[in-house]
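Researcher: Structure for this, please.
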Amino acid sequence: MGSEFLNESQEGAQQEGAPQSGRPDFSSFDAPKAQEGAKVFGMLTDPDNPFLIDLTDLVPQEQRVPNEPAINVFLRALVNSGGSDLHLSYNVPPVLRVHGNLKPIKFKMIPADTMKKMIYQILSPQQRELCENGEEVDACYTIEGVGRFRMNIFHQLYGLAAVFRAIPIRVKTIDEVGISEDIAKLALHGQGFVIVTGATGSGKSTTLAALIDYVNKNDACHIVTIEDPLEFVHTNYKSIVTHREVGAHTNSFSNALRAALRQDPDVILLGELRDLLTIEIALTAAETGHMVFGTLHTNNASETISRIISVFPADRQQQIAMQLSTVLTAIIAQELMPSKDGKGRVPIREILVGTNSVRAMIRDGKIPQIYSAIETGKKLGMRTMKESVEEAERLGKISADVAKDRIAELAMKQ
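Model: Predicted structure, token format:
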């Protein structure tokens, strides 16, 4: 990258007066002019904000690389903090999300023109063109030896902004993400449909990656992953893993999934069950002898089943319910709760296994009875979200107050 910290050119020709010390020059970040009236974003930069963190503490000088893009410094801070996301927005300092909390870095606010220069430093010419045309950029950005980051560059009221999600370089094992081997073994079935659900940022991709890693290390098969953008990269162990990214290697999830069926796959991972066509092809793929993994932004097993069926027109819903009932292997609904020591987050899961009785409920439209099936299916590895919360409290992973509040919330939704 360029030899000047905020050089707009990707080639980074040296500008006159540029610092020669080889260390990032933050002097180009001018503080915004004082404005009359209410203080915008006052809480973020308040000196007594308990979440303020020091950039020098997170990224000491010896960790910085001469002439690297400005954003790299903040991404190093993200990794060193153990955070999940970096927010870069107009007229506020860089903000990290660490264990669910927004923590601003003690730094000058970033004006719009500087923000654009920072972001353009790491974009390809094609990605810059997308920005110039007012479009979003979804892609992965890699810093060797530091990590990979899923980035979304977008326009907002005052110019360009960006959010980066940290993607661990090393894929976690099922033990590290808290999935029992009994549940992981379901992924070794010759065919079926495993759906991991939860809100954005609930760790769905991490859980899916751990399941794929388990298959990769325990079975000899061809695994095709289709993501937007590509996140976890798997080493070939017993299996061959083919990674495809929507936008870079294919036009859409549905096109890639349709093509995957002609690529001799055994296992197909879909980063997102995004629309009717993708869900339809995924069901067909599972029906025709493949193990299919996918994600949805739903909160529990019953809601997931209802969502899949309701995507289709009313005159097709009975047929889709029949298809789903024949292929469903498991639904893993998860969320993250703050750990008792305040140093991380703990995955809490509801797990439904596609037993004969569960499949009959789906086929007969008795979705409200699914929760009872989970309650009575403990021997098969099923568990309710409430049971998962109670177990996490019993093991000392979350506090009693956090558990009590979450159980009360769950009770209100029943």
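Researcher: Any notable elements?
Model: The longest helix spans residues 204-218. Residues 10 and 121 are 5 Å apart (CA to CA).
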